[in-house]
Amino acid sequence: MRTAIYDHIKDLQLGSFRLSDERPFNASGQALYLKNMKTIYVDQAQTVHDNLISTLDGVVINAETTTVRVYMSTDAKQMPSNYQSLVANIKTARNSTDITGVNRREVDVSTTYEEDKMVTEFEFRFTTLT
């Protein structure tokens, strides 16, 4: 799923932003997106299994949720002119036709501030019932 989201972003008009092949954190755990503003990083997919229903006759329905996070930072004092449209376009990655077999597609976008940087985090969640 990381590849599908990465490919979707790669095909967008990024303007003054760029897309990195690297993961968002280096070996020592430092956030690269804080060091390299206007660079978009796609993290590795994380999968969680939850037991939704267990019946007395042994039927079990599980939900497998795969989460992929995307990070970028900008100067908090001067927003790039294409910021809002870029955020809207990145959010559409949840509808990628390369991601199949999922029952639910969700994305949340949050912003936080680190010193003089505004960090934007996208959390894509894809759920499959098994």
Descriptive account of the structure:
This protein is an alpha+beta fold. The chain has one domain: Alpha-Beta Plaits (2-Layer Sandwich). Helices cover 17% and strands 42% of the residues. The chain has three helices and six strands. A hairpin with a 2-residue loop joins β5 and β6 (117-129). It starts with a helix and ends with a strand. The relative contact order is 0.24.
The shape, in one word, is elongated
The amount of helix comes to: 10-25%
> How many helical elements?
3
What class, by secondary structure content? alpha+beta
User: Terminal Cα separation, in Å?
Assistant: 18 Å
Q: For this structure, what is the CATH class?
A: Alpha Beta
CATH topology: Alpha-Beta Plaits
Please state the average pLDDT score: 92
Which percent band covers the strand fraction? 35-45%
User: If classified by CATH, what would the architecture be?
Assistant: 2-Layer Sandwich
Low-pLDDT parts are: none
Question: How many structural domains?
Answer: 1
What is the strand tally? 6
What letter string, H or E per element, gives the SSE order? HEHEEEHEE
- Report the sheet with the most strands, covering strand number, pairing sense and barrel closure: 6 strands, mixed
Q: Nearest-angstrom radius of gyration?
A: 17 Å
